[in-house]
Amino acid sequence: MPVLLQGLTSLTDPVDRDIAVDLPGLAGETVRLDARGWLACPSLYDADTFLPLDGGGLRDGDVETALRGGVSTLNCSVDWHRFTDPRERGPLLSLAGCSRLPSVRLLPTAPPDGDNSGFPAWLAGFAGEAADLPVLKACKLYARAPDFARNLEAVWSAGWLAMVFVQDARMVADLAESGGRICFRHATSVDDVAAMRGSRQGTRIATSPQYLLPLPADTRRNLVVRPSPLSDEIRAPFARDVLSLVDVIATDHVAPGATAGPGLRLQQHFLPALLALAEREGLDKAALLDKAGASAAAVFGAEHRDGVAILAPRSAGGTAPEIRDPEREPFSAALFTHEVVAIVSGGSAAATPAFGKFIR
User: Fold this and answer.
1) CATH 3.20.20.140 residue ranges in the chain?
2) Helix (H, G, I), strand (E, B), or coil: what is residue 44?
3) How far apart are CA 176 and CA 217, in angstroms?
4) Which residues are registered as beta bridge partners of 108?
5) What percent of the chain has pLDDT over 70?
6) How far apart are CA 304 and CA 298, in angstroms?
7) How far apart are CA 51 and CA 78, in angstroms?
8) Distance between CA atoms of 272 and 270, rounded to whole angstroms?
9) How far apart are CA 352 and CA 343, in angstroms?
10) H or E segment to which residue 66 belongs
11) Mean pLDDT, to the nearest integer, of 302-313?
12) Which InterPro entries does UniProt cross-reference here (predicted)?
């Protein structure tokens, strides 16, 4: 169904604009909607997610979650062992090569509690053929794993980016200064960033919305996430200077069934949360979204299926969904003024369920 949205406020254009959206699965003649008060924003690149990818595919619920968060491209962590199984390798690579809205980028991962004894040998061989494969030239590692130093050297020997999680940012102060490319996950404070960067050239820093927006004290304490969000006294200066402190903002979203470990269900709030952060701290919206867009993709040397995310005022759509799992969900949708109703990218368009209430 062709839908003409008239009078949207553009984040990147000083004048209001009209956007034509051809939504698959909806039949009928062109519908014209008064979209004054709606927003048109760049869609996002979520650089850190955990999704099951059962059978090498995205579940409908995970697609909906990405669209609701304004995400048109995402990195999905994949245990490196899955690439050694021919039954899984083919479907995974097919997904990465053919996925649409969201496009999936595969991020090989050495899990912190698994058997990684064969990881260096596997990576040495895989890296040799990966130039022609739809896989990120990056690996996710965990500093608490006993084989971390060996695995880090293997990633650097392959010429790949190491995406690293450390529970204590001070652990990385003495990391080999002459090592390869590295991106540290989950900075939570100004002090974290200083410890992670040290004197190292080319270090990249990532953070997530739960470390930038204020949370009630009980919520902070009870979230199943590493590291835990800190107090407002520590969070506030970090949030104010986030544009100069970090290179990547990602969600660390864990979909249901993806892992029993820590992690939040946050991707559905990604774009609304960043817009709320920009309003709260007086940050440049376009520059902030770039940290979760083209700049994030560039850190991973990845192509970003960028597009336009369309947001409608939440008040127009009635009540917000309830928080179903408070230990995994830090934000209520009711905190945000707008919700994503569609993403347009190239010749493709996809709508969230929220779009239907405007064309009945």
Assistant:
1) 42-305
2) strand
3) 37
4) 78
5) 92
6) 9
7) 8
8) 6
9) 9
10) helix 60-68
11) 92
12) Metal_Hydrolase (IPR032466)
| Closest C-alpha to 192, from 210, 170, 208 | 170
Q: Which two tokens stand for residue 355?
A: 């779009």
What does the mean pLDDT of the chain come to?
Answer: 90
Tens digit of each residue's pLDDT (9 = 90 or more) over 80-119: 999 999 999 999 999 998 888 999 999 999 999 889 999 9
- The pairing of strands 138-142 and 248-249 is unpaired
**Residues 6 or more apart in contact with residue 46 via CB below 8 angstroms:** 66, 69, 71, 73, 74, 75, 102, 250, 251, 253, 267, 270, 292
Strands (E), 219-357: 248-249, 253-254, 308-313, 338-345, 348-351
User: How far is Cα of residue 101 from the mean position of the Cα atoms in its chain?
Assistant: 14
Assign domain 42-305 one CATH number from 2.60.40.10, 3.90.1150.10, 3.30.70.20, 3.20.20.140.
Answer: 3.20.20.140
Residues 6+ away with beta carbon under 8 Å from 237: 189, 190
